[in-house]
Amino acid sequence: MLFRFVCSLAVSMSTVLSIVYHLEVVQLDAFQLVLVGTVLETSCFLFEMPTGVVADLYSRRRSVLIGMFLYGLGFLMEGALPWFAPVLLAQVVWGCGDTFITGALEAWIASEEEDKPIDKVFLRGSQMGQIGGVLGVVLGTLLGNINLQMPIILGGSLCLLLGLVMVRIMPETNFSPAIEERQGLLKDFVCLFKLNLGFVKGAPVLLALLAITLCGGLASEGFDRLSTAHFLDDTVIPVIGPLNSVTWFGVISLIGSGLGILASQLLIARMEKKGTVSRTSVAMSTSAGYILCLVLFAVGRSFWFMLLVFLLAGLMRTIKEPVLAAWMNDQVDEKMRATVFSTSGQLDSFGQIIGGPIVGLVAQQVSIPWGLVCTAFLLLPALFLVPVAGKKRD
Fold it and tell me: Tens digit of pLDDT for each residue in 2-22?
């Protein structure tokens, strides 16, 4: 809970105004803006599998700690050097750090809390992350009004501090390596990769869930990178007292986090009352809702209408992700959790690598709204994949 809270605080502080920073300080155009995201996701794709193997062979705790230090270094580089090339390099550094955490964190907590319902554990962790994110948004917005580089640099510093604290207090008592007899790093990697591939091939539900993750990656990069530009270019952002364009983006992020906290709490309360929830229903409704809201956001021109559907689109993603993670966890052997979760992260990154440039070119050559519509269409296959996974096991 502490890790999710503080990590989200630091990351939110660093990223809440990062696109505004990229647009106004680094002065990126639409294609460069998407390219920054593509470089980030390419780094995640390339490093995801090796870092997942490290977590399953050596230590999930160690993997998480390495990730935090790389996060901090990447954010410091991005905030201190406001030019296109250093910003691209920073994406590689903190993108690599993200891969050390992704998969390793979920596998670590699932192993340490084996006797607890994992859906509730993941949802509660997500909720604590959202609470930390709210505080990060507030601090990042206040600091960004002074200087857009300041929240990125301070967020990076906080990541480094969290890493140092977790070195002292983070436990790992239930870890057992996926391969007991070591043959060298390269041979161990190949062996674990083959085990993982064979396991995934024999698990049809897991295959369907991984395909849904790929679709989510295809449909996320355009939304993440172009939504701010859509607000800035295609509507008039009202100035209400201290609410200028910079502050508005902090407020929007704050409201989105608050809605996510509330929705997670309602879902947790429903689970406590009924014992479980239908993962198929949650995944289907949130995927369909995301597509609809994103199309409406793209065609909207009224600021208040765009704000409403933008918040709803973000809410759909917030609800879906921890439920999918818990669903996937049930299909995975304990010793290969980090590797399988890393495979999921790798597919998400691959989807963003493919979808990002496509959407960026559409936005550059046609318009930003059409780029957003294209993003929505990329999620359509998920509507057919969710029932496939649900038929096997819910």
Answer: 899 999 999 988 887 787 888
**Burial class, 84, CB count within 10 angstroms (exposed 0-12 / middle 13-18 / buried 19+):** middle
CA distances from 78 to 91, 154, 158, 193, 344 (A): 8, 11, 15, 33, 27
Partners of 243 in the beta sheet? 240
Q: Say if CB 53 and CB 94 are below 8 A apart.
A: no
Is the distance from CB of 217 to CB of 351 less than 8 angstroms? yes
DSSP state of 334: G
Other Cβ atoms less than 10 A from the Cβ of 115: the count is 5
Question: With b meaning 16 or more CB within 10 Å and e meaning fewer, what string describes 145-170?
Answer: beebbbbbbbbbbbbbebbeebeeeb
Tokens representing residue 344 in the block: 């999921």
Q: What is the mean pLDDT of the chain?
A: 80
Is the CB of residue 45 less than 8 Å from the CB of residue 96? no
In the prediction, which pLDDT does 172 show? Answer: 83
- Contact partners, residue 317, CB within 8 Å, separation at least 6: 216, 220, 286, 290
Element (H, E) at 384: helix 382-392
Listed residue (141, 167, 16, 18) closest to 79, CA to CA: 18
Q: Is 269 exposed, middle or buried (0-12, 13-18, 19+ CB in 10 A)?
A: exposed
Residue 341 CB: number of other CB atoms within 10 A?
Answer: 25
Looking at the chain, the whole-number percentage of residues with pLDDT higher than 70 is: 85
> With a cut of 50, which residues of the chain have pLDDT below it?
393-394
pLDDT tens-digit readout, 186-221: 666 666 666 666 656 656 777 788 888 888 888 887
Distance CA 129, CA 2 (A): 9
In three-state secondary structure terms, 243 is: strand
CA-based nearest residue to 328, from 217, 179, 203: 203
Give dist(CA 138, CA 37) in Å, integer.
24
